[in-house]
Specification:
The protein is built from 13 helices and no strands. The chain has 372 residues and is mostly helical. α9 runs antiparallel to α11.
Length: 372
């Protein structure tokens, strides 16, 4: 093997060294974007939770037991609009942000962990590994510049997806108790005098007293699978789509100016030939369009995972013999038998609207990151 091939197969140490910009930028930008997007979309999130979990609080009717509900509870309403109206009339405007503080903690922390871990995993582990393994699939002849460009695009695509999944698993594990508190508070109906919990600390104290620390991780298994799947699509998909749009935009610009197809990226590292991209290469419209498409697709495809984990969360603190679901798998079978596939997609309408919040998170992260 030639020395040049050896260099390509074994990237120099500089490939894994930190960039000139500090790593904390990813965390700060992610946390700011997460807090902003979650607060803006909190009313939609609460309506979605009330629709999604109405059968967990009021189980669907069976032949011998009618549905226990009243005309005043928003959980009995079939549409998002009716739920929102009844919440406003019975609990007030501020109740749409009930449980938002732990949600902001969770979302800001999750976003900070997600974006920081994704950048770290990609830069230190995934890209160097893919640079070695993918290059081994080349032919015996020395790769041309066009071959290297194709390999670079492959590495970027797979590194985005893999890094997104790894970051999702890390964030789900670290931030799961905050999501648990958010869900229990959001489903705590009524006014102050009739509420079950007096705040996040009250939920924490009572669940730990009855179930131990493990009670804060009800539904963790299905949540981990769903978190990895969702972040592969959400973080990895958005990063991969941005890179592909930039590649195509650069190619179109060069073809338009010279009449020839480009064979090398506009900006490459001297050592690894990996393109260095700037978010500013894409317009606001392109970034928002890409973010919304990814957010909507990822949210819809991963929604059944979210439904199951939230149903499992709602059982914490109950005696084992009174719990409706024994495990995540048992929950899946019960929902399929009693509610059908539709049971996994309760509240999907508000979640489609909520996907705007996911798009805002992605674009806001890019913006905060550029400002920093």
């Amino acid at each position: 093997m030639s020395s040049s091939a050896t260099t390509r197969g074994n990237p120099p140490p500089s490939h894994a060294t930190p960039r000139a910009t500090p790593q904390w930028r990813e965390a700060v930008a992610g946390a700011a974007a997460g807090a902003f997007s979650k607060t803006a979309m909190a009313p939609v999130e609460r309506v979605k939770l009330l629709l999604q979990l109405r059968h967990s609080v009021y189980p669907p009717p069976v032949a011998t037991a009618p549905l226990a509900t009243t005309t005043t509870t928003p959980l009995a309403s079939p549409s998002a609009w009716h739920v929102a109206r009844e919440v406003y009339q019975t609990q007030g405007f501020r109740s749409f942000w009930r449980g938002n503080l732990p949600s902001v903690w969770r979302t800001a922390g999750t976003a900070a962990v997600n974006f920081t871990c994704m950048d770290y995993y990609k830069r230190v582990a995934v890209q160097p590994l893919l640079a070695r393994t993918i290059l081994h699939r080349t032919t015996t002849h020395a790769p041309t510049v066009a071959d290297e460009l194709s390999l670079t695009r492959q590495r970027q695509f797979w590194s985005s997806l893999i890094s997104g999944g790894l970051a999702g698993g890390t964030a789900t594990t670290l931030m799961y108790p905050f999501e648990f508190l958010r869900t229990r508070l959001a489903m705590d109906l009524g006014k102050n005098e009739s509420r079950q919990y007096q705040g996040a600390l009250d939920v924490l104290r009572r669940i730990v007293r009855s179930d131990g620390v493990g009670g804060l991780f009800q539904g963790y298994g299905i949540a981990l699978a769903g978190g990895i799947f969702y972040r592969v699509l959400f973080l990895g998909g958005y990063d991969a789509l941005k890179n592909e749009l930039k590649h195509r935009k650069r190619a179109a610009m060069v073809v338009g100016n010279t009449g020839t197809v480009p064979v090398v990226p506009v900006s490459v590292s001297n050592n690894t030939r990996t393109p260095t991209f700037s978010t500013n290469e894409l317009s606001w419209g392109e970034r928002i369009g890409a973010a919304q498409a990814i957010s909507l697709s990822a949210g819809t495809l991963s929604y059944p995972f979210d439904s199951v984990r939230r149903r499992m969360m709602m059982q914490a603190g109950q005696a084992m013999e009174t719990r409706r679901y024994r495990s995540s798998w048992h929950c899946i079978t019960v929902v399929l038998r009693t509610e059908g596939i539709r049971g996994f997609f309760l509240g999907l309408g508000p979640n489609v609207i909520r996907s705007v919040g996911g798009a805002v998170l992605l674009v806001a992260y890019d913006s905060f990151r550029d400002l920093l």
